[in-house]
Amino acid sequence: MEKIQHSHVEVRGLKLHVAQIGSGDKVVVFLHGFPEIWYTWRHQLIAVANAGYRAIAIDFRGYGLSDQPPEPEKANFNDLVDDVVGLLDSLGISKAFLIGKDFGAFPAYMVAAVHPERVSGVIALGIPFMLPGRSAVQNHQLPQGFYITRWKEPGRAEADFGRFDAKAVVRNIYTLFSGSEVPVAAEDQEIMDLFDPSAPLPPWFSEEDLSVYASLYEKSGFRFALQVPYRTLNVDCGITEPIVKAPTLLIMGEKDYVRKFPGIEDYIRSGAMKHVVPDLDIIFMPEGSHFVQEQLPDQVNEFIITFLGKHSA
């Protein structure tokens, strides 16, 4: 970990925090989800660098050590796409592999669809191909207490999270979301109320890990995180007839609650995803949760390095 170098890179008027290790022309860029941050890729950064790649993980704008945009409520997923391309430009990188987890998979797919010349391959963890828009997640087919529906409502998550410090919010979400059930609150509950205070941290997530996450979210807060992804997930991104031609690997935990979203399991298993991502492989991890890269890092690293080796020129 001490070999990972940290810097800030000017991208589209904001300074984005960049963690990187390794060197060379073969580049891998890691894109985090929520409540994650660059640190979620700690195991992968080192493994990929040891395999001979330049490994880069960022904090998205508004997250962790990156700058906040001046008007967060005007942001959407297209900003993240432009940031990824802008980062490659700023670092003088012509082409890279993109690895996205949770909502970080969205900009990975989107960059590959809109800027195919910049993408060597895509690895997505936990999220099959989809674009922001009305059909992204079928909220209306889930109970009103569905966490995305709750967090989409302005002010509601702010009040819910505001009862706790950043460390408690991250602890609660990591513990709740590592389970196999979709987080849904009752009518008289908020999402944070679902957390059982006696529940231990997942065995693969230490108090030290929690402290790192907490320190980063203490700096950034959750304002931008609630805007992107939750309040812009159903905002059309303007990409019509998308095709991801780059080789793509989807890694799904069999115990990931996302598989229980309406239509997701059939979409993944039916082969429908190949209509938009023709060069697709899918790996199912029987014990995998929503956080497979932290829960089962050795296995995930092996999958990643095998994929990179297969598709590196």
Automatic annotation (TrEMBL):
Pfam families: Abhydrolase_1. It comes from the Eukaryota. GO terms for molecular function: hydrolase activity. Residues 27-146 form the AB hydrolase-1 domain. Keywords: Hydrolase. Belongs to the AB hydrolase superfamily. Epoxide hydrolase family. PANTHER family: EPOXIDE HYDROLASE. This is AB hydrolase-1 domain-containing protein. The lineage of its organism: Eukaryota, Viridiplantae, Streptophyta, Embryophyta, Tracheophyta.
